[in-house]
Please model this.
Amino acid sequence: MRELVPGDVVLLTIGAVIPADAEVLQCDVELSIDESSLTGESLPVAKNVGDELLSGGVLRQGEGHALILRTGENTFFGKTLVLLTSVNSVGRLQRSLRKIGNVLSAVGAVLELVILFVIVFRDHNTFGEALVTALAIYVSIVPIGMSLVATTTMAIGARELTKQQAVVMRLSAIEELAGMGTRRGARSRP
Model:
């Protein structure tokens, strides 16, 4: 399939995955294509000569030949993947957690320096012993597990939404959806 280019003709048999966006050139009977993974349509779609086939569809009935029109990122499926991977949105919760983490880390760094100097100059310990103690205290101050807890909570929310037949592509969408419900509820109160 890697060698396919627009203009190639491919043979389609039952069970074959359509390798690229193509046009039906010839078919013995009406082709039945399962495009549920691409379009969400639960029933197979009927295709005849001249109809377009989408990359990733599965041939359920019939046989025929198809002319490759588009490959790779130029296909319907490829463009969808490019759009999904190009989305790099950070939700408000993630931004807030990052700010809180930065503030706590800065406060922890200042406290670490104070503790380091107190241990070295007041207790007259070696700098190495003082550094180990100060780093142990700093590690306990920095909220390392905060993002893990937030991600786990959002994953549980995604699971709950999936039970209600919702499709969740990004965990930050759960946070935005929760914020919409909160704002709407706040406005509707007298």
